């Protein structure tokens, strides 16, 4: 089946829902999730095999979140990749994602993915706190997992890109964990302020996520952070037709202005990747290849 690539956060689907439910106002979170579930179902491909997977619960205060750990081999001292998924702040594919499996195999890394709590039931900053707790757990348990604590990298797509940028704000505030080896941002949306690129649909899900909180803090809108000079080498992937491509361009500009190594990859002819990235659908191959090459180079340099 030919896959129809949606615009940012399934813009076409959301637009249709605006038209369909115009008499009752904008779509509800349940309606948006239903559309996203269907779009993800259409993009899914068979899961790639990995050496081993493991599910765990990680405590976050009095609550907990589920993580999935992927192992490419039984060897030790492997790189670790922390994958924070996208989903417009309100949707999750579940903890087991094919992109995690593909990156596990192709980078020979232990991959940890987090199924953070979702807005609007758990508004800002719950998802960031969940992701931060898991990141601290990873660094504290890297050697027990068979990983190299000096080779921990982060990847986040879409809303996940905002979260891993917010994690750098948290790290600078809290003084831990150590700076990651590398970071990969895929179609990141990192500015939630009124008027930020993305249009009404982006504002809809942003407001669901913020839950009334102000968007003009570095934790909510990491493009406002003070210290981009503390970032590791980064890869920023944007798409030609993505409504929030400007977010990635601004991030890359900030990193370069701060003297940090940053590669900006612009995917011609493509829209916001969203579910095709999460599913590791062949239509996301160029983004996957760029990510793998970047991470393998970073891991090899640090491993010498």
From TrEMBL:
Gene3D superfamilies to which the protein is assigned, alphabetical? alpha/beta hydrolase (3.40.50.1820)
What GO MF terms are annotated?
Answer: hydrolase activity
| Domain Alpha/beta hydrolase fold-3 positions | 83-272
Presence of the UniProt keyword Ligase in the record: no
Could you list this entry's UniProt keywords, alphabetically sorted. Hydrolase, Signal
> From which residue to which does the signal peptide run?
1-22
Statement: the UniProt record of this protein carries the keyword Signal: yes
Q: Which InterPro entries match?
A: AB_hydrolase_3, AB_hydrolase_fold, GDXG_lipolytic_enzyme
Q: Which PANTHER family match?
A: AB HYDROLASE SUPERFAMILY PROTEIN C4A8.06C, ALPHA_BETA HYDROLASE FOLD-3 DOMAIN-CONTAINING PROTEIN-RELATED
Q: What is this protein called?
A: Alpha/beta hydrolase
